Amino acid sequence: MNNSIQEKLIKGHEVYIFEKHHHALFPWSKIKADNIDHNFILFSFDHHTDTHDPFLCYCYHHNEKMDNLISKMNFNEERSVNDAVLKLKNDEHIKTALKIGIFDKAFIISHSNTDDFPVSVQEKERIEKFAKNDPEYLMQIISGNYGITPRAERTYEESDIYMPPFDAEGYWGENDVLEDGFLAEKMVILSRMCSNIISAEGEIKCDYILDIDLDYFHTMKSIDPSTKKIFSQLVKSAKAITIAKESICVEIVKREKIVTSDILLEKLLELLEFIL
Prior knowledge:
By secondary structure, this protein is of the alpha/beta class. The chain has helices at 25-34, 56-62, 66-71, 78-87, 93-99, 121-131, 135-143, 180-193, 229-237, 247-253, 261-275; strands at 6-10, 13-18, 40-46, 105-110, 161-162, 207-213, 240-244. The protein folds into 2 domains: 6-116 and 160-275, no CATH class; 119-155, no CATH class. β6 (207-213), α9 (229-237) and β7 form a beta-alpha-beta unit.
């Protein structure tokens, strides 16, 4: 594996640590290649959604087509992965991994996502009616008779990426991002989006890799949850854990001077040790 990846074994659980998030493709490819008959999903915690198209920046600057670059990738071939990572940026790795078959689906909890993704069938219909100036819809708004479909009644189309809004009900702050109450809300939404993979209780019904970008944590309290049953379940059941340090992004989004990527990594590893 690429020498930019640090490998640790915490009580039998594989943990991979790296600076740039798109370097996750190295361990992800290895895990998939070693378990070729297994279908994997990704479960990721991140400040950003990291869902740009594969090779978006490279294609723009080098006048190449994304499909051509994707067709050259093979997670079974280390050289192929190395060549691809050199052309990728740190927000293009998730869709790349989906395109080349490492993951079947990705579930992302991100500070940057303010709405359901995918958009529910009901919300999509509402947006389309508004765009078309639908007379019946406009009269409903004017008369005050139009109501947005309650979340519990929304239905969703099939997708390869699922993201709940970061704070759907307004109860949670930046300190709460691993707390049971916050995660329970997100898991319920994800279960409505894709019930065949995630249960309302937060159980993931297939093999998955747990992926954590340290810029998800803005404060020291955020990485020291007082209630952590759901996060502990995610850690214990993961096939492996990947951690992106993203030191520059941590500096940009942090809310306390004491917060650095190195300190967050130390605290996260302590938390994993405690859980495992």
